[in-house]
Amino acid sequence: MQIQSPNILLIVVAAVVMVLYVFTNSAVLVWVERKVSAHIQRRPGPFEVGPFGLLQTAIDGLKLMAKQLIIPAKADKRIFMLAPVLSFVPPIAALLTVPFGKVVQVQNLDIGILFILSLAALNVLAILIAGWSSANKYSLFGAVRSVAQNIAYEIPLLLSLLTAVLWMGTLNLGELVDAQGGFWFVFTPFGFIAFVIYFVTGMAETNRAPFDLPEAESELTAGFHTEYSGMGFGLFFLGEYTNMILVSAIATSLFLGGYNLPFITLNGEGILWELIRVLIFLAKAYFLIFVMIWMRWTFPRVRFDQLLNLCWKVLIPFSLVNLAAAAIWIKAVGG
Amino acid sequence: MIQKPDPTQETLVLNMGPQHPSTHGVLRVVLHCDGEYVLDAEPVIGYGHRMHELIGEVRDHRGFYANVGRMDYGGALSFGHGHILAVERMLPDLEVPERAEYLRVITTELNRVASHLLWFGAFLLDLGAFTPILYSFDDREAILDLLEHVTGARLTFSYMRVGGVAADVDKDWCDGVIAFVKRMRERVPMYHKLVTGNIIFRKRVEDVGHITRDMALKYGCTGPVIRGSGIPYDVRRSEPYSIYPELDFEIPTSERCDCMGRYNVRWEEIEQSLRIIEQAITKLPEGPVMADKVPKVIKAKGEVYQAVEAARGSLGYYIACDGTTSPYRMKIRVPSYSNLSILKELTRGILLSDLVAVMGSFDLVIPEIDR
Fold it and tell me: Are A137 and B354 an interchain contact pair (Cβ–Cβ within 8 Å)?
């Protein structure tokens, strides 16, 4: 593949569109989360502001923006202000390489997966410096937990993604989707195991219940973002929801055949076909998000040592064996 | 005394509370932590001290009665029951009608179920599950509606009176109670399906916070905490009062001694309370709910100690009177105070998350401890 000169204008426009998408997505997801959790808990959820309470999150966002940013006196101010930005920007940048459709993809990188993973790894740095700079013991506890959790969970996450990369023989996200076509990777036994492991570790990566240890409310009040108010907290919040869509988008691209229907490869040309593809992709991604929300509102929180035990004793061995088995299969049978 | 942090030791002092989501009010626990491990946990109480005992010595007996419900917002009726029984013991001529005593037991047991449901939700909230509390509040709401109908209050009930109860019930209310018992029995399997069998939940509570029989006895634990350690101590049976000797119910215990044991005991207690309510409502005698001749001014002499089984354990009122209208000395023995005192020994060397689970399994009500 030859090196293309990047079209700066396209990237700027696309980045703006992506930021808009991220904001809308977060606003809608927060509403969805509140509605779904409400129905799980047999209550109506927000319904006062706008139709079906749709504008509730917009009002909440406005409230967060209007709030005073309080910086603790002993906090390291520059790092304290940097942390929310650092948790919010990388997931957006990572979304730029996600193939929502055949054409709807801002930049198709040959090392797309690597790019996304390296940006996703910045999340733990954001949490660490947020916890460290707050000069609060609860924040520090949250940060320490987060580092241990994220470093541990990055390994099975990488191994499960590596299985998919090995199977399809490419790091390019667009090619990964095309290589699967209608026969999704999750239909193969290796793909299925890798997908389950990826989804569990992905939930841990997004720090959501039952793996929300860095912000465990009943133990650490709010963990690493205890001291953040207003939009400082708001950016962490946005980052979390963007991370959710990123994790689901990767799962969709690598395991669930991207924009293809099961056993049907969608290769049609034209804007209508492209629209259908994007809708299929989003439907899969949002279904995974729905499952995440569902689990969050059903399960209690795991304990710290249990979380690490699960990772080191179950997920890593299984993903290693799965990767080796896939490699042997490819060598012997030819993937 | 609170231990001063030692700068030579590499431990972290963490103030958990007084404002903390899982200390259920204004309890402060000073933790000495080594990473996630708790080396020492020292409860600091008194943030919600409201001088209830002193008020009891200043006001007359009836005037103080409204205060007792404020001590335990979860199970206010058993606190009222204990106080009224103590005052009535100082009046040997007083004949309390049987119907009043039945109504006291029915409402108290309904309140006990409501209290256990509140604990269930709060305990799961401590463990990080948000949904169960809304389910349990659904059932609790049904109880509160019933209690509101007869007592007029939903939280700090002042239903009982010296010589009887404030209001009689009608047939509709009795039918409502029977319907609730039926509904609650149908709902219990749902709770077990949602929570008890959950692998994450079981891993969080099994073999956590192990209280041996000796420890439970040494610290004077009562209620579900001591029964969760396999000792069938229940004031309703060991020091029978009111109409409990006439009723058929069991004292559930668990040999597990851990948080799971206490959890199981409370669920079985809900079932036993439902049995008591069922029996009492079918046996409910006709007649007045207030004694004919109740002295307007209570001037007693001597001392009484009356213990009752509150939702959290043994509750005792010690009232010493010197012949004036108000007690000379009042001492209230509350269950949560003794149950909390075990925390320091119990939580040495456990994880921070387990500390939260252990405190949740005690069902602490802080205003009751601080008084």
Answer: no
Q: Where are the domains of chain B?
A: 52-335
Bridge partners (DSSP) of residue B301 are: B322
In a domain? residue A2 = no
pLDDT at B7: 61
A217 at the B interface (CB within 8 A)?
A: yes
Measured between CB atoms, does A147 come within 8 Å of chain B? no
Number of other residues whose CB lies within 10 A of the CB of residue B252: 19
Number of structural domains chain A divides into: 1
Contacts of A313 (CB under 8 A, 6+ apart): none
Q: Are A243 and A91 in contact (CB under 8 A)?
A: yes
Cβ burial, residue B311 (10 Å; 0-12/13-18/19+) = buried
B352 contact residues in A (CB cutoff 8 A)? 141, 219, 304
Tell me the ipTM for this assembly.
0.78
Q: How far is B340 from chain A (nearest CA, A)?
A: 18
Which residues of chain A have a CB within 8 Å of the CB of B135? 41-42
Identify the pLDDT of residue A218: 66
Instruction: Taking each helix axis as running N to C, give the angle between helix B352-362 and helix B98-126, from 0 to 180 degrees, rounded to the nearest 10.
Output: 170
Fold adopted by B52-335: Cytochrome-c3 Hydrogenase; chain B (1.10.645)
B200 reaches A (C-beta below 8 A): yes
Range of the domain at A257: 75-332
Q: Tell whether A53 is covered by a domain.
A: no
Residue that is written with structure tokens 């973002």 in the block: A225
Task: Find all residues with CB under 8 Å of B144, minimum gap 6, and list them.
Answer: B114, B154, B155
Distances in whole angstroms, Cα of residue A169 to Cα of each of A179, A254, A334? 9, 12, 11
Cβ(B143)–Cβ(B113) below 8 Å: yes
Q: What is the pLDDT of residues A193-248, one digit of tens each?
A: 888 999 888 888 887 777 777 776 667 777 778 888 878 888 888 888 888 888 88
- Which of B338, B368, B366, B363 shows the shortest CA–CA distance to B117? B363
Cα dihedral B354, B212, B136, B250 in deg (nearest 10): 170
Contacts of A87-90 with C-beta under 8 Å, sequence gap 24+, read A87/A123, A87/A126, A87/A127, A87/A130, A87/A235, A87/A236, A87/A239, A88/A235, A88/A236, A88/A238, A88/A239, A88/A242, A90/A119, A90/A120, A90/A122, A90/A123, A90/A126
Measure the CA dihedral B52/B153/B77/B366, to 10°: -50
| A89 domain residue, yes or no | yes
Using alpha carbons only, what angle is made at residue A148 by residues A146 and A149, rounded to the nearest 5 degrees?
65
Residue A58 included in any domain: no
Model confidence, pTM: 0.85
Distance CA B371, CA A108 (A): 67
Give residue-wise pLDDT tens across range B282-339: 888 888 888 888 888 888 888 899 999 988 889 999 999 888 888 888 999 989 888 8
Q: Give per-residue pLDDT as tens, A293-322.
A: 888 888 888 888 888 888 888 888 988 998
pLDDT for B52 beyond 80: yes
pLDDT tens per residue across span A259-295: 777 777 767 777 787 788 888 888 888 899 889 888 8
